[in-house]
Write a structure and sequence with these properties.
Blueprint: E1 7-12, E2 21-25, E3 38-43, E4 46-56, E5 69-70, H1 81-92, H2 97-100, H3 102-105, H4 107-111, E6 115-122, H5 132-142, E7 148-150, H6 151-157, H7 162-170, E8 174-181, H8 186-189, H9 201-215, E9 221-225, H10 231-244, E10 248-252, H11 260-270, E11 274-277, H12 283-294, E12 300-303, E13 315-320, H13 339-350, E14 353-358, H14 363-370, E15 375-379, E16 390-395, H15 396-401, H16 410-421, E17 425-429, E18 438-441, E19 458-460, E20 465-467, E21 474-476, E22 489-492, H17 496-506, E23 512-515, H18 525-534, E24 540-543, E25 556-561, H19 575-587, E26 598-603, H20 609-615, H21 619-633, E27 640-648, H22 651-668, E28 673-686, E29 689-698, H23 701-713, E30 723-728
Parallel strand pairs: 9-14, 9-15, 10-12, 10-13, 11-12, 13-14, 16-26, 17-24, 17-25, 23-24, 25-26
Antiparallel strand pairs: 1-2, 1-4, 3-4, 3-5, 6-7, 6-8, 18-22, 19-20, 20-21, 27-29, 27-30, 28-29
The structure holds adenosine-5'-diphosphate (ADP) and zinc ion (ZN).
Zinc ion (ZN) binds at residues 450, 452-453, 468, 470-471, 473.
Length: 734
């Protein structure tokens, strides 16, 4: 049968190709693909995976190329609302629609093959004419508890040779087949015992409200539950209920708290229904996870931010744990979306219940709850007899006056000694990578800057190198000052490597684990550090913010924060909020069992409200104070913010470009928008590019979006080698 008309599809791309292109869909693919499905096409002579964003009958282009390959499955079909969500992301966060698909249609995901193994099973146990050895092997297999075996299991573990297996196959006793195996995330392979949950009365009250909402979802819920109040248990029960109703479940967790412990808890309670998605997985594992979700084989997805974009059918429940966490915002590349806010939108488009949970809700979410946009639920007590820990603040200035120049106060030093004696565990937080912040020549004052970026190089002692944490530039650490040839080079500021060295020195018998970006680079390292600590193979876990969140180790009696004010004075309107979150969260790691825990916070700014209120566990006090200052300055949640960065190698042209943008912005919205800047960005150079920034504030989201769309399309589009970044609801001000 001939088609009366060609079916044409518009395809968008997850890579830097602007716009969408039209292709002919060959007849053999017709009816097999949906909007949102990945297709392989040729663009500028290379083959690329893109996604169908539209079906049409005609195209303005004359000569269209055909679609070469397709992926079937429920990418978006049965609920078209998912493609509407993608369209919303593209328009709200100002990027090409193809880019929104990047996490699910990346080349590597599309091109990684399923994993196949050779599999054997018994076809006929009764076959005659076997040799004694063949008979012996067959009898052995018959009495084995398994019913099928992979080649390596039989050959390596059972010592059966390949030729023997071949003989058994040709005589018809065994069959040999190719079989696809699912590569699972490491965390899923470690099962534990089945866990039965019995909710406390407080948890039960929260659960039953949410259960009712699950049937007819309306507003999102904000669950404000202190650390250790058992939010996870409520999530698990709710997810079980949703599954029983036949609905899909997405659970978002910040990347670094997506630990084996978290995943195992869900697995032990829910069984084998879970798929996982995070950045430490291999391409193969990720491909298989995605496939399980797209084909509907797994109906519960636990993942970091990009999981919210997953093509899961009939989603009924979306949980965002630690909703305040800034890692939900993707700032580095397009789409610059916030997964929490996207979750709220997905819930709206797909009539799913959205639950945002945190011990320290973000200013935005708590404000929304007070305004009635979200319904508020609270868990105010820890489970059982566990209490919130006692927190003490130590003024490090006073330590210096008493001539203690080490970075451990006398109090913390003493408490560590005592805790070690009792055989309990300790978590120490120092949120700073490397050995020392910078090197300075005592003779001439020379400091070491990255030649490509306007930041100091950080000294890493192990490799005897200095690294730029912006661009990765690395040099050998100098032995003499390159400027004055002096030999008095001094380390300034303590990084986590220096802290580790010192701790090993003063507590030689303590077993210490360090957890930071540098020790967790290898695949699986993250998992094994946390497992060792959980199994009490270490006494002290020293880490950056990676150790602050979500961990539940009942053995931890003491938490120490070595320098609480590192983030406090970064010029960013969220610096106070971030400090409060970090301290409250890390303090929450202590005393999660019957003993009262203890927290010691060392700081040079003991009077700072964020620090004092974290000590008091006073979320409400912090919120009330912070909301006033946000109001006064028009910062979110009062008013919306967008940040524009213009980047380029020639400073004059960058200035010219941002100048044009300012003119365009003023033309597009003479009032209703406040412009701050333009000015050089806080990090004014990265990788040799000059950077200028402009902040736009407004009460009206639609006005802001109109202006940003004009900026993105308009004045500097034709300027060569000038890059314009538009970041809506930005989290980084650097
Ligand atoms: P949160 O996520 O709110 O910080 P968790 O869900 O990690 O709290 O729970 C804190 C601790 O309390 C965990 O060790 C957990 O096993 C325990 N717990 C929570 N709910 C219950 C319950 N209903 N019964 C018994 N133990 C519970
Ligand atoms: Zn650099």
């Amino acid at each position: 049968m001939n088609r009366s008309k060609d079916q044409i599809v518009s395809v968008g791309f997850p890579v830097a190709i602007p716009g969408v292109f039209d292709y002919i869909l060959p007849e053999k693919f017709e009816g097999k693909v949906v909007r949102g499905a990945p297709v392989l096409v040729e663009v500028r002579k290379t083959k690329l995976w893109g996604v169908i964003v539209q079906f049409k009958d005609s195209s303005p282009c004359k000569k269209l190329k055909p679609v070469l390959e397709i992926k079937t499955g429920k990418w978006t079909d049965s609920n078209r609302s998912l493609i509407e969500l993608y369209e919303w992301i593209a328009s709200y966060y100002q990027c090409e629609i193809g880019k929104v698909f990047k996490p699910v249609v990346r080349k590597k995901l599309m091109e990684t093959a399923p994993k196949e193994v050779i599999n054997y099973r018994i076809a006929n146990p009764e076959v005659g004419n076997l040799t004694p050895r063949q008979k012996e092997v067959l009898t052995g297999l018959l009495s084995d508890s398994a019913h099928e075996w992979t080649g390596p299991v039989l050959q390596k573990e059972k010592g059966i040779s390949h030729s023997l297996l071949s003989a058994l196959c040709s005589k018809g006793a065994l069959v040999r087949e190719r079989k696809t195996v699912i590569r699972e995330a490491t965390e899923l392979s470690r099962g534990g015992e089945k866990m039965e949950i019995c909710l406390t009365t407080k948890q039960e009250a929260v659960f039953s409200t949410l259960k009712r909402a699950l049937a007819t979802p309306a507003k999102p819920y904000l669950l404000h539950g202190i650390t250790g109040s058992g939010k996870t248990y409520v999530y698990i029960e709710l997810a079980k209920t949703a599954c029983a109703m036949g609905k899909g479940v997405i659970i978002l967790v910040p990347e670094i708290s997506l630990t084996p412990q978290t995943i195992q808890r869900f697995k032990n309670a829910m069984g084998d229904v879970i798929a996982v998605m995070h950045s430490r997985m291999s391409d193969g594992e990720r491909r298989d996870s995605l496939e399980q979700v797209v084909t509907g084989k797994k109906r519960v997805l636990i993942g970091a931010r990009s999981a919210i974009l997953a093509p899961m059918d009939n989603v009924g429940l979306i949980i965002v744990d630690e909703e305040h966490d800034s890692s939900y915002k993707q700032g580095e590349m397009e789409p610059r979306y916030n997964a929490r806010d996207t979750a709220v939108m997905r819930g709206k488009f797909q009539q799913a219940l959205v639950v945002l949970g945190s011990a320290t809700p973000s200013m935005e979410s708590y404000h929304n709850a007070l305004q009635g946009k979200y319904s508020l639920l609270e868990l105010k007590k820890r489970v059982g007899i566990a209490r919130l820990p006692l927190v003490e603040i130590v003024d490090m200035n006073a330590e210096h006056k008493e001539n203690n120049w080490t970075f451990l106060s006398r109090l913390l030093h003493w408490r560590i000694t005592e805790t070690l004696k009792k055989g309990r565990q300790i978590i120490l937080l120092l949120n700073r990578r490397g050995y020392s912040v910078s090197l300075i020549c005592k003779d001439c004052g020379h400091t070491y800057m990255c030649p490509n970026c306007s930041v100091h190089l950080t000294y890493h002692r192990v490799e005897f190198s200095m690294k730029c944490h912006q661009c990765g530039h690395m040099i050998r650490a100098p032995e003499v000052c390159p400027k004055c040839k002096g030999e008095h080079i001094k380390y300034r500021g303590t990084g986590i490597q220096k802290a580790e060295e010192y701790l090993r020195d003063v507590f030689p018998d303590a077993r210490i684990l360090r957890m930071d970006q540098d020790t967790t680079r290898r695949k699986g390292a993250h998992v094994s550090i946390l497992e060792s600590f959980a199994e009490k193979k270490a006494d002290i876990l020293l880490g950056t913010q990676m150790v602050a969140k979500g961990l539940d180790f009942p053995g931890v009696a003491l938490v120490g924060v070595l320098q609480a004010d590192i983030a406090l004075h970064i010029p960013d309107f969220r610096s106070s909020e971030r400090t409060f979150h970090l301290l409250t969260q890390v303090a929450g790691r202590a005393g999660r069992s019957d003993d009262t825990g203890e927290v010691i916070i060392q700081t040079y700014f003991p009077q700072d409200p964020a620090i004092i209120m974290a000590k008091e566990h006073d979320f409400f006090g912090f919120f009330d104070r912070e909301i006033e200052s946000r109001k006064a300055l028009f910062y979110p949640p009062h008013g919306r913010l967008a940040r524009i960065i213009v980047q380029g190698a020639e400073e004059v042209r960058v200035r010219e470009a941002i100048g044009r943008i300012v003119v365009e912005a003023k033309r597009a919205a003479p009032d209703g928008i406040i412009l701050l800047g333009p000015s050089p960005a806080i990090i004014s150079r990265i990788k040799n590019d000059f950077r200028y920034s402009l902040i736009c504030k407004s009460n009206s989201v639609s006005l802001l979006n109109k202006v940003l769309a004009r900026i993105r399309m308009g004045p500097v589009k034709k300027m060569k080698n000038i890059k314009v970044i538009v970041d809506i609801d930005p989290y980084s001000m650097m």
